[in-house]
Design goal:
This protein is of the alpha/beta class and about 250 residues long. About 45% of the residues lie in helices and about 15% in strands. It has helices spanning about 50, 55-65, 90, 100-105, 125-130, 135-145, 150-160, 175-195, 205-220, 240-250; strands at about 5-10, 20-25, 70-75, 75-80, 110-115, 115, 160-165, 170, 225-235.
């Protein structure tokens, strides 16, 4: 299998020694060379990385990369086996390798990270507390007008209490291309709307955040078979701080 899994990065870092992984400097345009490929060649939106986050790398792959299967991880976040505890070196050994992906793809259309469960929030209310309800309202309008067959899934996903985050996936490249054509059409239409209202750039990583909620919408509508894996974190996560921020946003709007 010709599988390429992008590792989105914006700085020098450790990368797995496996040819399935392809480090990609996202937002590279105008930045110093880090010693690995960037998203600023060919047809690209590298300059939009500040608002599109890792999506600038996915756009580059859509337009410029040829392979049979495409995926995305992050320099500090990989598909793997459960590794919440232990040293960073121990966690590195839990990252999936080529043979793991090949086995998983025999029985599924898409590999995803395990759901993030919100428990006391819906996907809609969590996004509203963390970002802006307007994003979801306008995105729904765009989907309803230009991609109405996806509207039932959008409404269903918004009322769920769990979602696949980080724009992480592995799927056949032809499916990924179809997804990108749909996704970027929606995001570019919203970007144009923001431009027209003088609101462009008001929120850091805006379109990256919206897209995280749209992947499940596309997969649900397409009725694709998925398989989930744990996520290996290569940097410590302060879960107490994250949990406190979550509760502040929900109950105090902070």
């Amino acid at each position: 299998m010709d599988i390429k899994i992008l590792v989105a990065a914006h700085k020098k870092y450790w990368f797995p020694d496996d040819d399935i992984y392809m480090p990609l400097h996202v937002g590279k345009k105008g930045k110093p060379d880090l010693g690995f490929p960037g998203d600023d060649t060919g047809d690209n939106i590298s300059e939009k990385n500040i608002n599109y986050s890792e999506l600038s790398g996915l756009y580059w792959a859509w337009k410029n990369l040829k392979c049979d299967y495409l995926g995305l991880c992050h320099y500090r976040r990989y598909f793997g086996r459960k590794s919440f505890f232990g040293s960073i070196e121990k966690r590195k050994t839990q990252i999936l390798k080529r043979k793991d992906y090949e086995e998983l793809l025999k029985s599924a259309d898409v590999i995803l990270p395990k759901f993030r469960n919100y428990y006391i929030e819906t996907v809609r209310s969590q996004y509203t507390h963390a970002h802006s309800e307007r994003d979801l309202i306008e995105t729904r309008k765009i989907i309803g007008k230009f991609h109405p067959e996806f509207l039932p899934a959008f409404d269903e996903v918004m009322e769920r209490r769990k979602v696949h985050l980080w724009n992480m996936f592995v799927m056949p490249k032809n499916l990924a291309d179809e997804y990108f054509e749909w996704l970027f059409d929606i995001l570019f239409r919203y970007e144009k709307l923001m431009d027209e209202n003088g609101l462009q750039g008001e929120k850091y990583r805006l379109y990256g955040y919206i897209s995280e909620r749209l992947l499940d919408v596309w997969i649900l509508t397409k009725n694709l078979k998925t398989v989930e894996t744990d996520v290996v974190m290569l940097e410590k996560v302060n879960w107490i701080k994250k949990g406190g921020s979550f509760l502040k946003r929900k109950f105090f709007g902070k």
